[in-house]
DNA sequence: GTTTTTGGATTAGCTGAACTAATGCAAGAG
DNA sequence: CTCTTGCATTAGTTCAGCTAATCCAAAAAC
């Protein structure tokens, strides 16, 4: 169908509602003749008639009735979507997508200072491991690991991420942990959130390889599907976990966790802030980003010290 | 949203597909400037932007992407429906809705002569007891009982319908059936297709009342939910059924059924031919109607004789 | 580093699609 | 029988949306 006749379809819906061209014309601020002409042209273009004309009354043909019904829903849905999109534009709530472990162990403890700085800002944290997709999901911004698959977006690097074993002080006292080779004797705690199916123990395997430790079979480790749970297990003295800096730094500084070895490896992961290019200049987005950058700077200082 | 911008939405879908105004313009046989203007106006009217403009490339905003997806489906559905309606118009197949019992016992035996008269005519019989609704169902015409609830339609009376007991000759021999009062002693066969829930034995009750017979409890009858099954049961000697003229006349003439009593009551039912006003003049509809009227005339003669 | 190409933005001016206004017609109400 | 009502039709008008031409700036080509 010729898309030029689309407005006629709207006229048709109104005329079908009233079963009167005169009333439809009134509703649409047109003359009766205009409506009559539009319907005639529309019928011509569609190739079938929509109304049966009588003396001074109209009746829908079966085809006309079916089309009218379809169009009524179509227009309602369209109006609904547009309304929704407009509300979204006006919304002051920023939805930030974050990995769950990063959310609980790094973001949460720091959120207080964001509220202090911008009391009016409404931030909604959406913690999940799904691939970020700004088109599909109603997300305004995200913190992601390393790369973003979804099209082009505005990204800002926030942190780099180091990996090393951690355990509780109590656990360290009860077990000999002088060199990485001692890991043979102790329970390992694994986080398989990243390579769950392909190679669940990849994290430990990579670290042990870099530390040139042989003979440790990480597959005997207990395994969690979220990084924060693995840290939690280490905190409660269950064994040795592989910690990522941002997830364990606070606990190390407070003495609840310790690093038994010196070996620390950069695993190439970067935490990025990301948002659709278009949202880049929205004020609340800027506020969140600036705050995140300040927190990262503060955090880097703490790590360095 | 202003319905005047509807054609712009189509332009938008094409532009979103190509992520290029120039290519969209080419597809739509417009100039690049026209597309650019349409999108600008559309964004203005919607109140949010659809594309992020770069150097010489475009990107959809999250809102634009969602709108484009919705519109793509919307247009596809609309085109689909219109195509379907066009095919319907071109169709030479006439779908006739009939009550199942009338279809099997009256219409079927006579259809042969319709094919003889109009070998090219394609008739599809839709036998069901649903209320006829030309708008909702893909029906071109119908044979209905007495009245039509669905809006205005073109109707032509075909037959009137009389009601009286019938049984097989064998059954009549084995049972005394001189007056209606003798019905006390024999199995009754009931057809509850019309008043199933409210009053399943209404047909017998009404007939017995008109015949002024007392003391017969029709509720002991065996009951069928279709009129033709009740007749079938009578044919095979199961008992006495209440026959409607068009359903049993052929069998009576052939001697397979007989009327034990003289009492015949008009129950006010009329069989109507009905079709949407608009279809009234379509040639195949006319052919079917004319044939039906001829058959009815022939049938009336047979009944009278 | 300069030139060319490419693709979107913008503008003035044109044009025809769709509107109005006026009239005709025929059915049904009064 | 007359009046009212509501759709059809037509001639004439108007403005929404088009073209065409120009501008601009990034990126590709040289």
Automatic annotation (TrEMBL), chains A, B:
Membrane-crossing residue ranges in chain numbering: none
Gene Ontology annotations of biological process type: DNA-templated transcription
Xref: Pfam families: HTH_1, LysR_substrate
Leader peptide range in chain numbering: none
Keyword Transcription: yes
Molecular function GO labels: DNA-binding transcription factor activity; sequence-specific DNA binding
InterPro entries with a match to the protein in the record: LysR-type_TF_proteobact-type, LysR_HTH_N, LysR_subst-bd, WH-like_DNA-bd_sf, WH_DNA-bd_sf
Domain HTH lysR-type: 9-61
UniProt entry tagged with the keyword DNA-binding: yes
Recorded family membership: Belongs to the LysR transcriptional regulatory family.
Name of the protein in question: Glycine cleavage system transcriptional activator
Species annotation: Marinomonas aquimarina
Gene: gcvA_7
């Amino acid at each position: 169908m010729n898309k030029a006749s689309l407005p006629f379809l709207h006229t048709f819906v109104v005329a079908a509602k009233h079963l009167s061209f005169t009333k439809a014309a009134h509703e649409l601020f047109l003359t009766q003749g205009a409506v009559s002409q539009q319907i005639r042209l529309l019928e011509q273009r569609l190739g079938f008639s929509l109304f049966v004309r009588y003396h001074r009354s109209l009746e829908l043909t079966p085809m006309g009735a079916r089309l009218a019904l379809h169009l009524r829903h179509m227009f309602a849905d369209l109006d609904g979507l547009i309304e929704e999109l407009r509300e979204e534009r006006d919304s002051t709530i920023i939805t930030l997508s974050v990995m769950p472990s990063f959310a609980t162990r790094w973001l949460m403890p720091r959120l207080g200072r964001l509220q202090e700085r911008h009391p009016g800002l409404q931030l909604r944290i959406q913690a999940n491991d799904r691939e970020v997709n700004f088109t599909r999901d109603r997300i305004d911004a995200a913190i992601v690991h390393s790369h973003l698959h979804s099209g082009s977006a505005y990204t800002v690097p926030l942190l780099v991420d180091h990996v090393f074993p951690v355990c509780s002080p109590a656990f360290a006292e009860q077990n000999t942990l002088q060199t990485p080779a001692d890991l043979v004797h102790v329970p390992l705690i694994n986080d398989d959130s990243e390579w769950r199916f392909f190679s669940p123990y990849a994290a430990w395997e990579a670290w042990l390889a870099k530390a040139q430790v042989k003979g440790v079979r990480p597959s005997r480790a207990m395994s969690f599907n979220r990084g924060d749970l693995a840290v939690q297990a280490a905190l409660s003295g269950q064994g040795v976990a592989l910690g990522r800096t941002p997830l364990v730094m606070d606990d190390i500084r407070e003495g609840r966790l310790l690093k038994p070895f010196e070996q620390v490896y950069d695993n190439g992961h970067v935490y990025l802030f990301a948002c659709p290019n278009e949202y880049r200049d929205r004020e609340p987005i800027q506020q969140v980003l600036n705050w995140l950058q300040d927190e990262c700077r503060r955090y880097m200082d703490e790590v360095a010290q």
